[in-house]
Write a structure and sequence with these properties.
Layout (H helix, E strand, L loop, with lengths): L1 E11 L2 E13 L2 E6 L11 E11 L1 E7 L14 H14 L4 H18 L1 E7 L4 H14 L2 E5 L1 E2 L12 H18 L3 E3 L2 E2 L7 H14 L3 E5 L3 H10 L6 H7 L8 E5 L5 H9 L3 E4 L1 H6 L7 H6 L3 E4 L11 H18 L8 H8 L1 H4 L16 E4 L12 H11 L5 E6 L2 E2 L11
Parallel strand pairs: 1-4, 5-6, 6-7, 7-9, 8-10, 11-12, 12-13, 13-14
Antiparallel strand pairs: 1-2, 2-3, 4-15, 15-16, 16-17
Helix pairs in contact: 2-3, 4-5, 11-12, 11-14
Bound molecules: guanine (GUN) and fe (iii) ion.
């Protein structure tokens, strides 16, 4: 496959490469290279010409709650803990009903597709069959994902709490089903957060991590009341980070921790050493009044950070809006912390493409050998009367683009069409 157009990608943090009107060659799903002139060996082959459109690596969202997508914006007058109790847990309890799960998860996948997220790491619910259905639907969609059955056996309402042994057995069954039956969906261990999982459950999950060599995702230091609660629950363990570590849930290079706002330097050292991916969820942190993660300081310390949505702690799955929000919040933060430089747009793009893509392998860039995941984006130029260069087109798309602007989506070198045919354009 040969594409012609304006390719934008970020080989390093802060570095944006723009290849205008060049040719990108894809073979077996991988980028061969980008060429100014089409090499002779490809002469005569069909070229897909995308004209003035910009072509970006597709977004990778490493922290999203699939069952919560239908609640975007609901309950944001509350902080995290009452928000979970009042709005989120009752919604997640509905996924016992497979008809509800089917309708909701198809909407979830259609929406991610629409806004250009081709890979994600999602929390399901604690329900085994509902979560399995999400995995199967994702495999059918042509996108790629890590998906986990949520584990929660304490401090949760009766409608959304499991027995420890059953939680572990259901998790292991899904790990095996996933390994045997799915190709583009992989299982990720998903203890909800420390307050919802007993020491026994965390120990068991840590052992499953070892046995099957699995990645892990959870929440870390998101909200002050939550942090104080973890301290109360585990008075003998010095930090929130160390609770996960002690139970084998900080697996090196294979762990995503969402939020990670209130961390000591000692915790950051552990997270850095273990290459834990910190999912920065700026919009959620504002919507639930959680706080501001010191992103610049974390990046300067060499921590692994990416930008993620955390829907429905945030109100949209649209990753372009999360880039914009991360930049906006960093500018407000800079006003009161002038030593913490604001995030630039190329930096934000890197954190949501190449950096987040690294969790999937060579994903999120157009360098040779990368899996070809891409979005073809057109922005309004007033019928050609307001010509825009590719960088301006990127700015227009990041700040106010939406699904109408994304014309074509690719994942692993294949065009991905709208996954499910639902009524009312859902
Ligand atoms: N902490 C525990 N569960 C959740 C959740 O569903 N969303 C967010 N944002 N934080 C959590
Ligand atoms: Fe979350």
């Amino acid at each position: 496959m040969i594409l012609k157009g304006n390719f934008l990608y970020t080989p390093e943090l802060g570095q944006l490469t723009i290849r205008e009107q060049e040719y990108l060659v894809v073979k077996d799903g991988l980028v061969v290279d980008i060429y100014k002139e089409l090499p002779k060996e490809y002469a005569g082959e069909q070229v897909i010409d995308y004209g003035n459109a910009i072509i970006l690596p597709a977004f990778n969202d490493l922290h999203i709650h699939a069952p919560q997508m239908v609640n975007r914006g609901v309950g944001f007058d509350q902080e995290l803990l009452p928000w979970l109790e009042t709005y989120t847990f009752p919604l997640e309890a509905r996924y016992k009903d497979m008809d509800f799960a089917d309708r909701s998860y198809k909407r979830f996948l259609n929406r991610l597709w629409a806004y250009g997220t081709m890979r994600f790491s999602a929390f399901g619910t604690l329900h085994k069959e509902g979560t399995w259905h999400l995995m199967e639907l994702t495999e059918q969609s042509g996108m790629s994902a890590y998906i986990g059955k949520v584990n929660m056996d304490r401090n949760s309402p009766d409608i959304l709490r499991e027995e420890t042994a059953a939680s572990l057995a259901d998790t292991e069954e899904l790990i095996c089903r996933c390994n045997e039956q799915l190709k583009n969906v992989r299982f990720i261990l998903t203890p909800r957060f420390v307050p919802s999982t007993t020491a026994e459950l965390m120990t068991g999950l840590g052992k499953l991590g070892e046995k099957y060599n699995l990645p892990v995702q959870s929440h870390l230091s998101e909200n002050r009341s939550e942090v104080a609660w973890v301290k109360e629950l585990h008075p003998d363990i010095p930090t929130y980070t160390q609770v996960y570590q002690d139970f084998g849930l900080m697996r090196p290079g294979q762990t995503i921790m969402a939020h990670s706002i209130y961390l000591s330097d000692a915790e950051k050292e552990t997270l850095k050493e273990r290459h834990v991916m910190l999912a920065h969820c700026a919009q959620s942190n504002a919507d639930l009044s959680s706080g501001i993660m010191p992103l610049r300081r974390n990046l300067e310390m060499g921590l692994d950070c990416c930008i993620a949505s955390d829907v429905a702690g945030s109100h949209t799955v649209a990753m372009n809006r999360h880039l914009a929000m991360s930049i906006e919040v960093s500018k407000l933060n800079w006003l009161s912390h002038p030593e913490e430089a604001a995030l630039t747009l190329p930096e934000a793009l890197y954190l949501a493409t190449k950096k987040s893509g690294s969790f999937f392998g060579k994903v999120g860039s157009f360098e040779p050998g990368y899996e070809f995941d891409a979005l073809v984006v057109e922005t309004d130029d007033v019928d050609g009367k307001l010509p825009r260069n590719p960088f301006e087109r990127l700015e227009l798309f990041v700040y106010d683009g939406d699904d109408r602007d994304i014309k074509v989506r690719y994942c692993r070198g294949k065009e991905v069409k709208k996954p499910f045919d639902l009524k009312d354009n859902l």
